[in-house]
Amino acid sequence: MAKKKNVDMSSTEDTIKVVQAETPATQQVVESEASKSEEGVEKVVKTTTPKRSRSKKYVSTRAKVDKTRKYSVTEAVATIKKLSYTKFDGTITLDGVVKEVGKVATITLPHSTGKTVRVAIVDDALLAEIEAGNINFDVLITAPQYMPKLAKFARVLGPKGLMPNPKNGTVTPKPEIKKAELEKGAFDLKSEKKTPVIHVSIGKTSMDEKALVENIDAILTAAKGRLLSASISATMSPSVKLEITK
Q1: How many domains does the chain divide into?
Q2: Taking a C-beta distance cutoff of 8 angstroms, is the pair 52, 36 a contact?
Q3: Are residues 155 and 138 in the same domain?
């Protein structure tokens, strides 16, 4: 039989106390008495993330999707509309993997997605609004001569993705024309900043199937050659893989 080891409980440098507590996140708290000082205690918290729990409704809905096949756009839209079970008008989103990070294409969808884009053009009055902390727009367009005045707001607008940039056409000598295009639904389809993945809203579950199909077709056409795979899903619904080669 192995001999028991005596531990000097009075030594703050050698004592380690392990406390296991049952919590919703199954936390293991390890308290080690550090040698920073005689009374110093260093605490290290290790958290084991619990497995994501899906509702019975989601699980039963997911069982209706064949995960081994890719659906035509028409089939996918019809399936997603049937699978959507939210009480509100859900948003249908296309998620895809592209070849590389960055801009994929500039697209104008043939049908409104139900989202209104607020477009503003920089002038002295708008600069005063920004300085006061009032940002009431989704896209900001400017003529080149306003860029020096706009530069001091880069720290505010940049993190929000609102700083005008010549690369996406929001710095232009004809901002009125660009504004009209954007208000008609034109937008730059871009991947995530560090991952070649795209997410784009293509409409609402209440929309006509034909309109949804045409919006998806417009995206697939614009991203042709750059899109590797894609799927669509509605708010809180499982996803359906798309056949994108045809």
Answers
A1: 3
A2: no
A3: yes
Helical ranges in the chain per DSSP H: 56-62, 73-83, 124-131, 147-150, 154-157, 175-183, 209-222
- Using pLDDT thresholds of 50, 70 and 90, give the confidence band for residue 67: confident
Cα-Cα-Cα-Cα dihedral sign, residues 66, 195, 163, 133: positive
Domain, as residue range, for 235: 63-113+186-246
Q: Are 83 and 195 in contact (CB under 8 A)?
A: no
Q: How far apart are CA 154 and CA 194, in angstroms?
A: 21
**Residue 129 pLDDT > 70, yes or no?**
yes
User: Would you place residue 185 in the very low, low, confident or very high pLDDT band (cuts 50, 70, 90)?
Assistant: confident
The answer on pLDDT for 144 being more than 90 is yes
Helices 209-222 and 73-83: crossing angle, nearest 10°?
130
- Residue 215 and residue 113 in contact, taking contact as beta carbons nearer than 8 Å: yes
Which carries the bigger pLDDT value, residue 242 or residue 48?
242
Kindly state whether residues 135 and 235 are assigned to the same domain: no
Neighbours of 182 (CB within 10 A): 20
Give yes or no: residues 180 and 190 share one domain: no
Confirm if 12 and 33 have CB atoms less than 8 A apart. yes
Q: Which of 184, 213, 230 is the last residue of a domain?
A: 184
